[in-house]
Structure formats: structure tokens, C-alpha cells
Amino acid sequence: MTAETTVTGAWDFAVELRSDPASAEARAQVLAKPRFGQAFTDHMVVANWTTEGGWQDARVTAYAPLTVSPAAAVLHYSQEIFEGLKAYRHADGSVWAFRPDRNAARFTASAQRLALPHVPEDAFIAALRALVTVDEPWVPSAEDGETSLYLRPYMIATEAALSVRPAREVLFGVIASPAGPYFDTGPKPVSIWLTTSTIRATPGGTGAAKCGGNYAASLAGLAEAVANGCEQVAFVDAVEHKWLEEIGSMNMFFVYADGRIATPALNGSILEGVTRASVVELAKDLGHTVEERLISADEWKDGVRTGEITEVFASGTAAVITPIGRVAWPEGDLTIGDHSIDYGVGPVTRSIRSSLLDLQYGRTPDTRAWLTRLA
Ligand code: COI
Fold first, then answer.
1. Where are the alpha helices (DSSP H) in 56-172?
2. What is the average per-residue pLDDT within 314-318?
3. 249 Cβ closer than 6 Å to some ligand 1 atom
């Protein structure tokens, strides 16, 4: 592997092209039906940081296992953060990211919360551009409907030291994965287990940061959901065990019979989803009143029973807009919406989903300048 070129900008990225990239046939096979997070492109971005030297050695290099010490702080104390965003191929072949400045800003906030160093926001976007430029053939074609290249920036504490303190050596990286629907069911409704036995995040904790620990903390709840015949789990607040927060990997929205839409207000223990923020704006464009407020689990159940809540959906980068067709809890079970038509995907969920996807894939004008060209 040789340093072929350098991409200059906020950081200079040396580009070390791999000598054994996937063959065009092998790549085509992956792109024909990409699943979520299963296959990875030929290259990755890596940069290293030390307290003395700051950020150095930013490069695009062959996708390969990392070598870290078994004493690396990330393995013991979970000093880690990540982001998730997608690169979309437009009809003219160009490749775009959706609101990457929001991911960059959230990465900064997460880094601060986890006592990790700051990646300048222009360097974060330059890293995405450097990787997508090199691995551009891995971005699925525009005709593929809802496929994209999922980008996963992350930062881990690599210092080999067992003292509990902020690490003095850190690695920043970006990997990329051709992505199809997050759920194997595609945009069909998923079932949600409403748990009160496990809590995902607490006031003053790390719930609003995008750190691996939050996802680890959601897994016992997810296992409980699966054991109870559901696909995903919804968490309530840590104090009153009453107010809806989020679904571990997605935010939640409720559609009311009068056209109002409500989502749990950000409270420091809910992740500030980029898709969530975008849905709030797009739903207003579509004429809905959008409320960000406290929503109790009882309001969800009662609203579905009385017909006041007509649709429920989840939002996330990976999951886009995913309809929720059923909610279950230890004492009950309710079906949401009419499953005899349109696979149970309600009209409001459908229209918000389309307006988001149309924007991301360049099928409608980007009036808010939410798109950034990567390649
Ligand atoms: C995303 O939507 O990008 C997420 O972060 C969810 C992911 C953990 C699968």
C-alpha cells in the first residue's frame, strides 16, 4: 500500500489505496441487495490523537481490523462515541450527505460529554468526503430506491492504561457500509415492547450523547422485547417511569386524529436525532401542528384505544421513518392503525416518509440547504 495522493482541507488526508480492492463483481453482489451494516467498503478513515501532539496522521487506508492493546481504555471504561449518517446517490450520479453539520455538531457535544478530544466540524465533514471520494463506486445507484452508503464516524480511547481518567491517546475513524432497510421487514410496521423494568438513560447521564454505552444499556430491554414477541423496545424516563423517551435507536412520533403530531421533548436523556429534527420541520411544511412535550405511556395506550392516536412512527438515520403497528407491555397489547390497507402504514407516516426521502435523494428542491455534496 502506498500513499498515492493527499486530500487537503481542514485536515490533510493521505490516501493509501489498497492493492486488493473487491472485484467489480463482488461489489455488484453486495450492492444488488445491501442489508444494514453487514458489508463494508474497501477503505476507512483513521486519525490519531495524543495529548502532546493533537490530531495527526489523518489518512484514508485499507479497511482492516484495528490493532489496540487489551488495556485500551475503550475496552474497559467505554470511552467511545459515534455518529451515523448516509450518503445518497442522486439521479445525476452525484453523492450527497443530509445535514452532516448536525452530525458534526453532535459529535462535538458527545466528545465533550465523554471527555474525548474535539474533532473540528470541517475536519469531520472532510473525513466523510475523503472516504466517499475514494469509495464512490460503493454508493448504491439512484434507481435502487432506498439504498445508500451508511457512514459511521467514531472515536475510541486507545491508550493502554487502566487508571480511570480521560485517555491520552485516541483514535478517530470513519467506516462505510452499503445499506438497505434497517429492518428486514422494510417500511412495514414494527412492534414495540414498552418496558418499565429497564431504563436506558438518567437525568445528568449520557442519554443525549451518542455513545456506545447508551446502546449497551438498551440491549437487555431489547432482549426482553424479543422474548415477548416484539421487535423493538421503548423506554420511559428514569424518575417517574411514566414519560416516553425513545426507542434506543430511534425517536418516536404520535399522529392524532385531528392532524396534530407529537414527539417527546428533548430532556437531556433523549438523543437529539437529526431525522427527528427534520421530521419536525417537514411535518410543519405538510400543514401539521407539531408538539414537543411530555407524552406518557398511558397517553399512548389510551389514545390508541379511543382512536385519538391514529398512527405512531419512529425516526432515525438508519431506520428513516418506520411505522409502529403494535405496542405491547406486560399486561396488554394494542394494534395501531388499519392493517388491512397499505400494510398498515398510515397516510401521515407515508407522506412524511416520502417528503424526507425525496429531499435526501434530490427528487425535490433542497430549499433549506440541508444537503452537502460529498462526491
Ligand atoms: C442511526 O440511525 O444512525 C443510529 O444511530 C442507529 C444505529 C445505532 C443503528
1. 73-77, 100-113, 121-134
2. 95
3. yes
Same domain, 96 and 242: no
Best mutation site among 317, 321, 322 for ligand 1, i.e. most ligand atoms within 8 A of its Cβ? 317
Q: Which amino acid is at 357?
A: L
Alpha helices in the chain (DSSP H): 24-32, 73-77, 100-113, 121-134, 212-227, 274-285, 297-306, 347-360
One-letter amino acid at 133 equals T
Half-sphere exposure of 304 (CA within 13 A, CB side): 20
* Number of structural domains found in the chain: 2
Nearest residue (by CA) to ligand 1, atom 7, is: 249
CATH number at residue 244: 3.20.10.10
Whole-number Å distance between alpha carbons of 277 and 271: 11
- The pLDDT tens digits of the residues spanning 321-344 come to 999 999 999 999 999 987 777 777
For residue 144, is it within any domain? Answer: yes
Provide the CATH number for the domain around residue 22. Answer: 3.30.470.10
Write the secondary structure of 119-139 as one string of H (helix), E (strand) and C (coil).
CCHHHHHHHHHHHHHHCHHHC
Average the pLDDT over 147-157 and give the result. 97
User: Residue 150 and residue 329: Cα distance in Å, rounded?
Assistant: 33
Which domain, by its residues, includes 305? 190-360
Q: What is the mean pLDDT of residues 28-32?
A: 94
The verdict on the CB of residue 346 being under 6 Å from ligand 1 is no
pLDDT by residue (tens digit) across 79-113? 999 999 999 999 999 999 999 999 999 999 999 99
| Domain presence at residue 373 | no
Residue 185 lies in a domain: no
* CA 90/CA 360 separation, integer angstroms: 9
Question: Residue 8: helix, strand or coil by DSSP?
Answer: coil
Q: What are phi and psi of 222, to 5 degrees?
A: -65, -40
Same domain for 168 and 133?
yes
Distance, CA 320 to ligand 1 centroid (Å)?
A: 10
> How many Å apart are CA 267 and CA 237, to the nearest integer?
10
